């Protein structure tokens, strides 16, 4: 990946309201993410990874720092999490509850579309790591299983 191309992506992101940008080319993946004051650090680390090749091509600065535990269920996309089907209904699932594979645990609303998040396997929920109405990022842990 050419340094000039990377610089153009950094400049484009700096002049927009994008919070995340990912680009893949020739086996390299460049991921830029803006997270408050840490945005410039992430961009610089991603640039160094892409140009120097100090890490594997698909590694990113943020993925290494915030990798979820194997027993966590993570958000498949960015959006607003809802732990109930509606305000008057009971929770889809709560801490201490045993769940079955395929059972709906929460819903993530993204662009007015409601996406069900289902249990990947039979397990017991040890902790609910988010609150209803909270914005979540793709890859953010939602539930921790025992």
Summarize the structure.
This protein has 146 residues and is α+β, with helices and mostly antiparallel strands. Helix content is 21%, strand content 32%.
Overview of the structural elements:
This protein is a component of the acetyl coenzyme A carboxylase complex; first, biotin carboxylase catalyzes the carboxylation of the carrier protein and then the transcarboxylase transfers the carboxyl group to form malonyl-CoA. With 146 residues, the chain is of the alpha+beta class. The chain has two domains: 3-65, no CATH class; 72-145, RNA polymerase II/Efflux pump adaptor protein, barrel-sandwich hybrid domain (OB fold (Dihydrolipoamide Acetyltransferase, E2P), Beta Barrel). Helix content is 21%, strand content 32%. The chain contains three helices and ten strands. Strand 1 (20-25) and strand 2 form a beta hairpin. Helix 1 (3-14) packs antiparallel against helix 2 (39-52). It starts with a helix and ends with a strand.
Secondary structure: elements and pairs:
Elements: H1 3-14, E1 20-25, E2 28-33, H2 39-52, H3 61-65, E3 72-74, E4 79-82, E5 98-99, E6 104-110, E7 113-118, E8 123-128, E9 135-136, E10 141-145
Antiparallel strand pairs: 1-2, 3-10, 4-6, 4-9, 5-8, 6-7, 8-10
InterPro entries: AcCoA_biotinCC, Biotin_BS, Biotin_Carboxyl_Carrier/Decarb, Biotin_lipoyl, Single_hybrid_motif
Protein name: Biotin carboxyl carrier protein of acetyl-CoA carboxylase
Keywords: Biotin, Fatty acid biosynthesis, Fatty acid metabolism, Lipid biosynthesis, Lipid metabolism
